[in-house]
Automatic annotation (TrEMBL):
Its main location: membrane. Residues 289-404, 678-790 form the ABC3 transporter permease C-terminal domain. It comes from Mucilaginibacter gilvus. The chain crosses the membrane at residues 21-43, 286-305, 330-357, 377-401, 422-446, 675-698, 719-741, 753-777. GO terms for molecular function: transmembrane transporter activity. Keywords: Cell membrane, Membrane, Transmembrane, Transmembrane helix. It comes from the Bacteria. This is ABC transporter permease. It is a multi-pass membrane protein. GO terms for cellular component: plasma membrane. Residues 20-236 form the MacB-like periplasmic core domain. It holds the Pfam family MacB_PCD. InterPro entries: ABC3_permease_C, MacB_PCD, Macrolide_Exporter_MacB.
């Protein structure tokens, strides 16, 4: 019996080639989209899953006076971890991480620079499960001047030599010698902590251990099983009050995040330097929802086409029932056909996934693969999901087809499918509503991204090259700057401690307006050299630039307009110009020499914050900014590289155009826009496939009507409008439903940006026109084909 069912199912699929292809392609595309997004979601969920349970990270909320709003940061103070462990029994253990990027190692004559090195507490391996290949990793983080390195670092530094026991040197602010005691496996890419070597934090950074004022590291705790984080956090104000001097405790809050929530749940936390490939959980959930919508649209196609073609199966049902078949048997047969079709679609979906993954990995910077053999549960889950998709798609058509009465069918008195037209219309509207909604969302997301990238930030970004400095290369900065300026390829050179577009540090300052009492507050700081404003073309609204010679008033400061307004908040009537010459700064007070216009030193997600610039060159710089003349970028880069090698022969030359850095700042937004756009495209494609199938069916069923109309004088245009008008009305209704939904969703989404585009009705009209054109092109093929057909052939049987 089942063999016979299979034969009938296969013959039916082969007989109705158009609808079968539409269903298989639609389901394959929908399944492929779901599988890819499922793999992406699974990859995101896998971050740090190889570690144990009950691991949390300590975070701060800083509420210093002067900040536009309290800010969450991933950093904490050196003495906090041992003090918390000593005072709270909920804490079993802790480890702190102090990181150094672009860390230099030398072995004999070979010198390399590795991306990231961690200094950690001896309990690091009690909390994290990183794999050790050989040697004593515990010794590396317990004994001073010992180190554990990863396989990749060992290969770069020692080649095929055994690294255990070898001595490597680090030349930085201090010259350090390390003995290699262990080799570790390379850190998995789905770990938020990415490092190339580990050494002992207490052994090297002992001088910082009692410093309650600085936030320079990350702190992780191993909590007791069942510990209540909320009640634990409630004890933190008392802890801060006990350990911080004066009223300092009022300006901080402490909170904890479980390790498994950090990767995707900390987008509102700044200075989160160790969170590799951080990605917003909301975006991941959005992708999953849209992928499911795409799959549902494909399922709707099957329901529509199956019920529309019910007349083709009516006599089959009547005959089978008349010779003894019952309704459950027929329903099972039709359901089996749907599941067979779904399984065929799965084969094509797997092929599409394999073709799509390289593009997805390139876009997302992940290493996602199809785990057909690596994860035993993958195939069973996909097969179960496919069968479920087949069941959902086919259950209604199966029940509908199996309900026909054999007497009425065989007499020809049953009007199959006629009463289901309303349901098909509803499903088509639902399909296109989803597709139009996604099209509108894609347009607004792309427009917002372009707006952020194109908006004038208040400084020059074009033709700006940035070069990182460390403690060694920084000593030669002035010579490097002078030699660059001697060449006409270079228009300007300056330096700073931080790079625009990155999260800048905050610092506390004191301000005194005339004879008023001194006021303590905090703001974002940018330590620069004297030429910074000129090179970046940052305009002053009041005062003057930094002096070229040492000021008699001590340090000089330039504040932005937002900072100026904050300083004058308690002095009604005072103007920004009156700030010039007023006492301001940290340590011994300096003076304000100028007020700059506001410029967006961060991304457009955030409003311009209070900022001050100070020319404190003796503190050293970490970024050189070189403005090159347009049209000769290649020659300028070659000249800069040659000059660097001449001054810093032992340091690799690294550079980045500032525009590329800002592209990285908006990388997550760009990823979201592209993925949403792709899914929207798939939704409209599958919807059009369904529309094509229904148009084909409609033209087929009205072939005699069309023949009569042509004989009576109807033109091709009249016939096309007759067949297309109904579907175009459904698409227009879909637009009217999608518009308010999209308007509400986009308003909600744009609130996350401090600077954003306006929602204009032009976009809605454009998408409406585009959707109608797409639908018309989809339908017109069948409509025109039917309209130009010879009416003699269609009327010959009459």
């Amino acid at each position: 019996m089942y063999k016979n069912y299979f034969k009938v199912a296969w013959r039916n699929l082969w007989k109705n080639k158009v609808s079968s292809v539409i269903n298989i392609v639609g389901l394959a595309v929908g399944m492929a989209a779901c599988i890819v997004i499922l793999l992406f979601v699974s990859y995101e969920k896998s971050f740090d899953s190889f570690h144990g349970e009950n691991i949390v990270r300590l975070n701060e909320v800083q509420k210093w006076p002067g900040l536009a709003a309290p800010q969450k940061v991933a950093l904490s103070m050196f003495p906090m971890a041992p003090a918390i462990k000593a005072e709270f029994p909920e804490v079993k253990d802790y480890t702190r991480i102090k990181w150094d990027d672009k860390y230099q190692f030398t072995y004999n004559e070979k010198r390399i620079f590795v991306p990231e090195v961690f200094a950690v507490d001896p309990s690091f391996f009690n909390i994290f499960n990183f794999k050790v290949i050989k040697g004593d990793a515990l010794a590396a983080i317990t004994k001073p001047n010992s180190i554990a390195i990863t396989e990749e670092t060992a290969q770069k530094l020692f080649g095929k030599e055994d690294p255990i026991g070898k001595i490597i040197n680090h030349y930085g602010g201090d010259t350090l010698k390390f003995t290699v005691t262990a080799v570790m496996a390379n850190v998995p890419k789905n770990s938020q902590l990415q490092f190339d070597a580990l050494y002992s934090l207490p052994g090297i950074h002992q001088k910082w251990m009692d410093n309650w004022g600085g936030n320079w590291l990350n702190t992780y705790f191993k909590m007791s099983p069942g510990a209540d984080l909320k009640s634990f956090e409630a004890k933190m104000p008392g802890f801060l009050k006990k350990h911080l001097n004066g009223d300092g405790w009022k300006y901080y809050e402490l909170f904890y995040l479980p390790l498994k929530d950090i990767h995707a749940g900390s987008t509102d936390i700044g200075l989160d330097y160790l969170n590799f490939q951080k990605f917003d959980q909301k975006s991941t959930n959005l992708f999953a929802i849209i992928a499911i919508i795409v799959l549902v649209i494909a399922c709707v196609n099957f329901m529509n086409l199956s019920t529309a073609r019910s007349a083709d199966r009516a006599k089959e049902v009547g005959i089978r029932k008349s010779i003894g078949a019952n309704r459950p048997q027929l329903a099972l047969q039709f359901l089996g056909e749907t599941i067979l079709l779904s399984l065929l679609a799965l084969v094509f979906a797997i092929i599409l996934v394999e073709l799509a993954l390289p593009y997805v990995n390139n876009l997302s910077l992940r290493g996602i693969s199809l785990p057909v053999f690596s994860q035993p549960l993958f195939l069973p889950l996909i097969l179960v999901g496919t069968i479920l998709v087949g069941f959902i798609s086919g259950i209604y058509p199966a029940l509908f087809l199996s309900s026909f009465k054999p007497v009425k069918v065989l007499k020809g008195s049953v009007e199959t499918g006629k009463n289901k037209g309303a349901l098909r219309n509803v499903l088509v509207v639902g399909q296109f509503t989803s597709a139009v909604f996604l099209m509108i969302a894609t347009v607004f997301v792309v427009k917002q991204l372009k707006f952020m990238q194109a908006k004038d930030p208040g400084f020059t970004r074009e033709q700006m090259v940035t070069i990182p400095l460390d403690r060694i290369s920084g000593k030669g900065y002035q010579l490097f700057k002078q030699q660059l300026l001697n060449n006409t390829l270079v228009a300007g050179v300056t330096a700073s401690q931080d790079q625009l577009g990155s999260h800048l540090d905050q610092n506390g300052v004191t301000f005194q307006y005339k004879d008023s009492p001194k006021k303590d507050l905090a703001a974002t700081q940018l330590i620069v050299d004297n030429d910074y404003l000129n090179v970046y073309n940052i305009k002053l609204s009041q005062g003057k630039n930094f002096s070229t010679e040492k000021s008699q008033n001590g340090r000089e400061y330039i504040v932005n307009e937002a900072m100026a307004d904050e300083l004058l908040k308690d002095h009604p009537g005072a103007t920004r110009a009156s700030l010039i010459g007023q006492r301001f700064g940290f340590d011994s007070l300096g003076v304000i020499t100028g007020v700059s216009k506001n410029f967006n030193f961060n991304s457009m997600h955030y409003k311009v914050e209070n900022l001050f610039l100070v020319n404190q060159s003796e503190w050293g710089f970490r970024k050189v900014s070189v403005k090159i003349n347009a049209g000769k970028s290649k020659e300028a880069i070659e000249f800069i590289k040659a000059t660097w090698k001449q001054i810093n022969p032992d340091h690799p030359f690294e550079y980045q155009f500032l525009d590329d850095h800002f592209a990285e700042v908006y990388r997550a937004d760009n990823q979201v826009s592209k993925i949403v756009g792709i899914l929207a495209g798939l939704a409209i494609l599958i919807s059009c496939l369904g529309l094509f199938g229904l148009a084909s069916f409609s033209a087929e069923k009205r072939v005699k009507e069309i023949g009569v109309r042509k004989v009576l004088g109807a033109s091709v245009k009249n016939i096309v409008m007759l067949l297309s008008g109904h579907f175009i009305k459904l698409v227009m209704i879909s637009n009217l439903i999608a518009w308010p939904l999209a308007w509400y969703a986009m308003n909600l989404w744009l609130k996350d940006f401090a600077y954003h585009i306006s929602i204009t009705w032009g976009t809605f009209l454009f998408v409406a026109l585009l959707s109608v054109i797409i639908a018309l092109l989809t339908i017109s093929f069948q409509s025109v084909k039917a309209a130009i057909a010879n009416p003699v052939k269609s009327l010959r049987s009459e």
